[in-house]
Specification:
The termini are far apart. This protein has helices at 13-26, 31-42, 46-58, 67-88, 95-115, 219-224, 228-234, 264-267, 282-289, 318-329, and strands at residues 122-125, 132-135, 141-144, 149-155, 158-165, 167-171, 180-184, 187-191, 195-201, 204-211, 214-218, 240-241, 246-250, 258-261, 274-281, 297-299, 308-314, 332-335, 341-344. It has 3 domains: 13-115, no CATH class; 123-264, Jelly Rolls, CATH 2.60.120.1440; 273-344, Phage tail protein beta-alpha-beta fold. Residues 1-11, 59-73, 86-99, 110-118 and 349-354 have low confidence and may be disordered. It has 10 helices and 19 strands. It has a 7-stranded mixed beta sheet with strand order 1-4-5-7-8-11-12. Strands 2-3-6-9-10-13-14 form a 7-stranded antiparallel beta sheet, covered by helices on one side. A 3-stranded mixed beta sheet has the order 16-19-18.
């Protein structure tokens, strides 16, 4: 028999917030539980109390394996489930029982804070033509494209990663109380447990969603919010990706991002050494190709920058790309003395630029 268990509405908001933290830390909420949580969260003062409790509860992840902390955490969870079961069957616990739940939870939190050790920042980097897959401290998987760098910091109330350059795919370990942030340029991608990629192309940021949902907000909006969870909740609909296969593009000078769709299978071709282009401006296609080869392509004629390129290309064979765009778009390739290849206009190079 499946029973939906909700924290009781007691007189102490902090106790209720602590009880919700216990419930959320075990597994994702069911539909009925989510509705109950949303109703509780909408009541005045509850959101702030929950965010305070969630920030403290997140500290536990730093020391979850310590026997002294784990013992109290298990006691808190068992006491919570036992008391909630009695509540469901109509036996109303006294305030002392509710206080005991909160006391156990808060004791666990206090121990975590007391024993918490700082987690040093790390960075993961690939060179030109190199791809790499790593697992970070929380169990999330990080796939780096060529010539990419991601800096990682595990903080008590969030997991913070900075995409310095290139592209990366993130398969996020679920933790509703400890959001997963990817900072890129002046944007922040907020998730809890999902799968998505982020790419930095010049000043443009592209986010592709494979599973779950994410919110993309400005770092200014993130700083103004009480927590990343609040920033994600307050994000405008156009700032959210909720359907896998959705792509969000943030362009310089535009207030709101553009939302489009993509083919997830083709988009991940880069993990296997393939680059899929679909009406991609030449300058961005060249920026991507340059991640894979020491033979550097340069768009020498600014008029070519917006020529739209489509096709499937091997990242290991830049020469095939050069030959292909020459035949299809009339673009000339002129070798330079330093190994650079200059791309210049040919007689038919502008016919596909519109």
């Amino acid at each position: 028999m499946n029973v939906a268990i909700f924290p009781a509405a007691g007189p102490d908001r902090d106790e209720e917030a602590a009880a919700w933290c216990v419930r959320l830390s075990e597994k994702p909420l069911g539909r009925r539980e989510q509705r109950a949580f949303d109703v509780w969260l909408a009541q005045p003062g509850n959101r702030e109390a929950f965010e305070d409790a969630a920030q403290l509860w997140g500290d536990i992840d730093h020391v979850a394996a310590r026997p002294d902390v784990m013992r109290h955490r298990v006691d808190a969870l068992e006491f919570h489930r036992d008391a909630q079961g009695r509540r469901y069957w109509g036996i109303t616990p006294r305030r002392a029982a509710i206080s005991a739940i909160a006391a156990s939870v808060l004791l666990c939190i206090a121990l975590a804070v007391h024993f918490m050790l700082p987690v040093p920042g790390q960075h993961y980097e690939t060179q030109i033509g190199e791809r790499r897959v790593v697992f970070i401290a929380d169990g999330s998987r990080l796939s780096l494209d060529a010539a990419s760098r991601v800096d990682v910091r595990m903080l008590p109330n969030r997991r913070e990663l900075i995409l310095v350059s290139g592209r990366a795919k993130f398969d996020v370990a679920k933790n509703p109380l400890r959001p997963f942030l990817v900072l890129v340029g002046d944007q922040a991608v907020i998730a809890t447990g999902t799968s998505f990629s982020v790419e930095k192309l010049g000043r443009e940021v592209r986010v592709q969603l494979y599973e779950g949902h994410v919110a993309v907000v400005s770092r200014t909006k993130l700083s103004a919010a009480a927590s990343p969870l609040t920033a994600a909740h307050q994000a405008a609909p156009v700032e959210r990706l909720t359907v896998p296969g959705g792509e969000l593009i943030v362009q310089p000078g535009k207030v709101l991002p553009a939302v489009t769709t993509f083919d997830p299978d083709r988009s991940l071709g880069w993990e296997a050494g393939e680059l899929s282009l679909n009406d991609e401006p030449l300058d961005m296609a060249v920026e991507r190709l340059n991640r894979y080869s020491k033979t550097r392509l340069v768009v020498a004629d600014p008029r070519l920058a917006e020529v739209k390129i489509s096709g499937l290309f091997s990242t290991d064979d830049v020469s095939a790309f050069v030959v292909g765009i020459g035949e299809l778009y009339g673009i000339r390739a002129i070798p330079a003395g330093d190994g650079t290849i200059l791309l210049e206009s040919g007689r038919n190079s502008h016919k596909n630029s519109k």
